[in-house]
Amino acid sequence: SPHLKTNFIGRNYLYFDSISSTNDYAKEIASDSPDGTTIVAEEQTSGRGRMGRQWVSYKKQGIWMSIILKPNIAPNDAVKLTQVAAVSLVDAIRETTNLTSYIKWPNDIIVNGKKACGILTEMNGEIDKINFIVVGIGVNVNVDSFPVDLQDKATSLSIEASKKIDRKLLTASMLNNFERYYRTFLDKGFFSIRNLCKKYSLTLGKDVKVIMNNKEYVGQAVDIGDDGSLIVAFKNGEKKAITSGEVSIRGL
Ligand code: BT5
């Protein structure tokens, strides 16, 4: 694509008409693939979300892709790449559609209150060393209708913009932005994109429900930590940095 301005992200580009899951395939080939290898499929037959959830990936209606990365960072830092992908998506969506989107921490991109993209970051490595990371990105670009159970929480860019969106332009823009933010993150650390994460956040300032050890707690999201975590202030005055587990915005 002439629109791709990257040095290494997406330079090794593997394209499939149909695949089970680009993340699964990426994990299979990662050890033998160069840094930045990008896998794109027109359709996924077993697209996945987090915790074994399903990801609806209709043929030619979205961007279903995975990026293989081999950074020299601590395994704990892998989650920050979800935030790198999220800010890249918000910029790419604005550049190609003019739509304003927001990050629902940690991995959803929301347009007009509904989920338009999801990110699934997976890591392979040991306690002290990363072998590779796969950042999976699902964007509902031209999906025109969703399964009944998703209709009130999912949307597509074409539905929100009331017009078809060029998937190639959006993919290139996403990869261009991703490489830029990824380099900034590697060179300068997460704090260099933290302000953008805060600016684009839908979660900050909202009441959130946090599920920890099977118990539900209600608090207010007050900050994004310098490690990409969500800082939640609870009623008893305690503040906690949430790095994993489930956070849901009440009322969304
Ligand atoms: C995610 O999980 O949001 C991560 C989605 C990552 C998908 C990409 S596509 C390329 C790569 N290959 C894969 O196999 N996956 C990645 P989570 O936060 O767990 O959200 C999953 C939930 O979102 C589901 O349980 C549904 O409720 C909802 N959902 C499913 N498909 C959707 C869609 N197309 N659009 C919006 N919401 C959806």
Walk me through what this model shows.
With 252 residues, the chain is of the alpha+beta class. It has 2 domains: 13-199, 2-Layer Sandwich (BirA Bifunctional Protein, domain 2), CATH 3.30.930; 207-249, SH3 type barrels (Roll). It has 5 helices and 12 strands. The protein has helices spanning 22-29, 80-97, 157-161, 167-188, 191-199; strands spanning 13-16, 38-41, 62-69, 102-104, 108-111, 114-126, 129-140, 207-212, 215-224, 230-234, 239-242, 246-249. A 7-stranded mixed sheet has the order 1-2-3-7-6-5-4, with helices on both faces. Strands 11-10-9-8-12 form a 5-stranded antiparallel sheet. The radius of gyration is 17 Å and the shape is globular. The chain binds biotinyl-5-AMP. The site of biotinyl-5-AMP has 28 residues, from helix 1, strand 3, strand 6 and strand 7.
What proportion strand?
25-35%
Main β sheet profile:
7 strands, mixed
> What is the name of the CATH superfamily of the largest domain?
Bira Bifunctional Protein, Domain 2
Order of helices and strands: EHEEHEEEEHHHEEEEE
Which characteristics define this entry?
single chain, 252 residues, alpha+beta, BirA Bifunctional Protein, domain 2, SH3 type barrels, 2 domains, seven-stranded mixed sheet, five-stranded antiparallel sheet, 5 helices, binds biotinyl-5-AMP
Describe the secondary-structure layout:
Blueprint: E1 13-16, H1 22-29, E2 38-41, E3 62-69, H2 80-97, E4 102-104, E5 108-111, E6 114-126, E7 129-140, H3 157-161, H4 167-188, H5 191-199, E8 207-212, E9 215-224, E10 230-234, E11 239-242, E12 246-249
Parallel strand pairs: 1-2
Antiparallel strand pairs: 2-3, 3-7, 4-5, 5-6, 6-7, 8-9, 8-12, 9-10, 10-11
Helix pairs in contact: 2-4
